[in-house]
Amino acid sequence: MAQPQKAAPDATAELTPEAKEKVELAKTFAFHLLKGIKQIGMYRHNESRFPEFLAKALESVQTYSEKFGPLSLKVEQQNLLLHGEALFTEDTPLPYKFFRDGIRQLIFRPGMQVEELVTFTLIALSEPERGAEDVLAQLWRASMEHVEYVVVEGFSMESASEEEVQVEVDKVVGYLYSRLQTNSDDYLRFARVSAEDLDSKLDGVEQIRGLVVGGRHATDDLKAKLQREVSEEENARLFPKLVSAVFQVVEGGVDDATLLEEIFVQLLDMLLIQDDFSTINQIVLKLRALSQRDGGEGLGRLLDNFIHKMGEEQRLMRLGESLKSARPKNPSDVTRYLQALGRDAIVPLLTVLETIEVPENRALLCDVMAGYARELPDPFVMRLVSDRPQTVRDMVYILEKSNHPERLKMFAQVLKSPNLVVKLEVLNIIGRGRTGEARRMMVDSLTDPISQVRMVAAKMLPEFDRDKAYADLMRVVRDAAFEKKTPDERVAFYTAIGSTGTPGALSMMQQMLSVKPSLLNRKRVLDDKMLAIHGLGGACSIQGYKMLQSVVEDKSQPLEVLTAARKAMYQTRKTLFGDSALPEEA
After folding, report:
1. What is the DSSP string of 345-374?
2. Which of 60, 298, 347, 544 satisfies CB 3.0 to 4.6 Å to 29 for a cystine?
3. For residue range 167-210, what is the model confidence (pLDDT) as tens digits?
4. How far apart are CA 330 and CA 335, in angstroms?
5. How far apart are the C-alpha atoms of 31 and 412, rounded to whole Å?
6. Other residues' Cβ atoms within 10 Å of the Cβ of residue 259
7. pLDDT tens, 135-175?
8. What is the separation of C-alpha 328 from the centre of its chain, rounded to a whole number of angstroms?
9. Quick one: residue 516, left, alpha or beta (phi over 0 = left, psi -120 to 50 = alpha)?
């Protein structure tokens, strides 16, 4: 057990010049630390900026350490002390978080790094009552080299045993009730309880710990139920009541517009941390309704400022954090939030899109941005030349969904990309256009340097105009260079010719199959017949099926041709008549 606390030095005693300087430097450190804690609490999602928020606090403690060595602070319930002087100039729960775990002294050693200060600050911000580990356990686990602490366990009193120490429950409850009945702006005042407040003469007692309460332990189910009730109270009741109270103030009239804007911004940040997009949407609707009343110009400006704040990068990045790896509970609320934003949110939204991994969430964001792309396509067109294939896919999807009249010209840039996968995806999107411009781009792609692109273009060309497609494809096939193409590409072109289903295509296939080979051209004739079989298979029609059937019945055909014809006939019959016809074919 710790010994009773010694009498504190006289607060009125004059400090030496050196002590005064120490106190001033320590107060500077405390001021910047508290300021950094507030900034981190506001922008908890932006972890990369934590060192920036605590930079001045680190500089202050380093200045102290360079001149006076370790900074040793006494921990009281409501403040940190140095030479009996309070360091915080405003109320903060930070000292009490350490005090209630028995920590009575914090020591910051020379050489402290910003990472240690960030860790210390996050521990101070943690909330054990909401499931986090207690502060003492977190400090022990962190094992910070330049941060030390002194813990006092138990208690003792002069001429009194532990059994003689009693705290009257009625007095405690009555005191807390009286604290709640106050007009003070200090809404945490009721929670700060000290022994002096209860008029208990506990001189020299640092902390009372080790109380044993008899009874049954709370089960895990009961704990989970209580946590759900607390969460429901916060999300389903507390925030709506808070929003309702704010609007009561707004409707009652507020002269200070700046103060009102700040209230709504803080409310927005609080709701974003809770991922409560539904309440944010309700605020927008309410403000819009109020601004449309007579004399609502001021509320109109408030609405514009609120929507602008909703679209700022740090808040959209917070939204992105919630969408990064998990689907939202109510995607429609997120969609309405994003649809309320202005054009100035386009670039931050594109930045957020880069961080999202869930395909459904990417699609949600792309669908919203498609509404902006029709009127303002430039930010999306600029990213069509991105090195990231996924970014190019997203931009193509957005521009296609926007139905921008010039989108095919924009896609032409992507067809110049060296990325094969992206080019093929864009070509498929262009193929769905069924316009003259899209058809022209397909014809141009027949001469693309990449064979896979030429093959896809040949496959999709008959879906526009079959007669024109037949003419375009035959022009490529009759070119002398076609013989040098790969077998796969030649098969793809003949299959495409057959899929046109024109009389000229079927007649050409029949002629190729009727050619009799000679000793010198046997290999070439066989290759042509195999291409013709692929062409008839591509036709996938009754006429093509009958022609294949006649080939199968012609026993003078080479074995390779008969086998390929039988396979093509099987696939054609399956496509035309379904699986029910297959056993009959067998």
Report:
1. GHHHHHHHHHH---HHHHHHHHHHHHHHHT
2. 60
3. 443 444 445 445 555 555 554 554 555 544 544 444 444 444 44
4. 9
5. 58
6. 9
7. 888 888 888 888 888 877 554 445 444 444 444 434 444 45
8. 10
9. beta
